[in-house]
Specification:
It comes from Heterobasidion irregulare (strain TC 32-1). One of its GO terms (biological process) is cell wall biogenesis. Keywords: Signal. It is a single chain. The chain is an alpha+beta fold. Among the domains are: 119 residues, Macroglobulin (MG2) domain (Immunoglobulin-like), CATH 2.60.40.1930; 32 residues. The chain contains four helices and 13 strands. It is rod-shaped and about 150 Å long.
Length: 240
């Protein structure tokens, strides 16, 4: 009998059952903590050794599904205070009933666990950044569409609106019977029908001047044909 008692005592010390002095009273199975709200964690000394007064400050950790460490809720907690207030962040993860607390003592090296409890009101995907990006994308899309509409409908720009005439390049004309090329300077053409006006007296004078200049050019051509080109042709014929 004494041999069996010695074996059980050794197992108890080795597994730490005799040192489970901190017993959690809140949360317990069925407790619901609301994310973003103040929640109270409490515990008692169950009378086993070592007493809570013999423990060094504690660290409080939150664990979730598959025994995953979610985060640290507090450090340097006095074991004899018997309670500690926490606020679980809404971004802690999804709602669930697989959460539990772990108290960690460095001296002596001990760990204490609470029962599993439920967390609700949690969300791991805040929508504020997505909403801002969507608004920015919508604004950029509207601006691009407005610019495209202006290009498609030919909305005039400031530079285009200030231009009243189109200037064409200088044209050089060479006739079959002429020996000297003549140059014709273009006349500015109005860009719209509203710019067309009836010819004035000065316009008729310019037309008459151009007509007289044309007749003078023809006279010069005839003179050269009769007095220069014709004698040259006759001389060539007689020489043959």
């Amino acid at each position: 009998m004494r041999f069996l008692q010695a074996i059980f005592a050794t197992l108890a010390v080795g597994t730490g059952f005799s040192r489970a002095s901190l017993y959690t009273t809140q949360p317990v199975s069925g407790t619901v903590f609301h994310a973003g709200e103040l929640s109270k964690v409490s515990w008692i000394d169950n009378g086993t050794s070592p007493a809570l007064a013999e423990l060094k400050p504690l660290k409080l950790e939150l664990y979730g599904t598959a025994d995953t460490l979610v985060g640290t809720l507090g450090t340097n907690i006095d074991p004899t205070s018997l309670f500690y207030n926490i606020t679980i962040s809404p971004s802690v993860g999804p709602d669930g009933s697989d959460y539990y607390l772990r108290f960690v003592c460095e001296d002596p090296p001990l760990k204490f666990y609470s029962a599993k409890f439920t967390i609700d009101g949690a969300s791991a995907s805040p929508a504020s950044a997505s909403s801002g990006n969507a608004n920015s994308a919508s604004s950029n899309s509207s601006t691009s569409q407005s610019a495209l509409d202006k290009l498609q409908h030919g909305t005039p720009t400031a530079a285009a609106a200030s231009t009243s005439y189109k200037i064409y390049p200088l044209v050089t004309m060479i006739t079959a019977n002429a020996t000297t090329p003549t140059q014709s300077h273009p006349t500015p053409a109005p860009s719209s029908a509203s710019s067309l006006t009836a010819p004035t007296q000065s316009g008729r004078t310019v037309a008459q001047t151009n007509s007289a200049a044309g007749r003078m050019d023809m006279e010069k051509i005839k003179f050269r044909l009769v007095f220069i080109l014709w004698p040259a042709l006759m001389g060539i014929t007689m020489a043959m």
